[in-house]
Input
Amino acid sequence: MTGVPDSGAPAPFTTAPGASAPPREKWWQSLLLALLAALAIRHFLIQAYKIPSGSMIPSLLIGDQLIASKFAYGIRLPFFSTKLVHFATPGHGEIVVFRFPEDPSKDFIKRTIALPGERIRIEQGIIYVNDQPIPRQPAGVAHDGQYAGARLYQEQWGGCSYMVQYSAAPSHPFWNMPEVQLGPDEIFVMGDNRDHSNDSRFWGTVNLDLLEGQPLFIHFSWDSEKNTVRWDRIGTGLLCGD
Output
């Protein structure tokens, strides 16, 4: 009986019917599922953002990192500019994340001041929405940081209570704005650092389709000037009433 010469090469690996996938194939499947889950979470559920500027001081500091809900105001499919579904409209005083109208590749974080269909104007630093001034009370002056000496005010707007600051004189152009009528799909946003914020006073309203999410809380904060973690800010809630 003659046999076939053995070439020495191993037989190719095959999976028998009904047998489980080899370990390497399972590893790739797990990795793919993890990547898809991460992509879904980032686009539809939550996303982290870092504060790069001082426009929201004293509420948000440079180096704050926050978690935002991506589905609070609606769902947008990846790579599409308009929302597939609208869930809600931000309320007065709520902080929002949105795509910058003049460059949608950039994300901005500001506070909602006026809602769709409302009228807004500013006189001597006082904000009027539908002819009603936003209530505020003096709260002293800032003592630390770049804006030490800025005048602090506690604003009460909608269901929100928050601190804002002014550092310019009342005659500054920032303190006055003619009345603006908002459209049915527009909001007007401003930074809490009122004299040092690039916001709706300069480039106009934000369409609801540009809303990215609602900040929930600060999950980390780094003070680059002192090279230290701001432990007292970690866990700070950003929803109205927190």
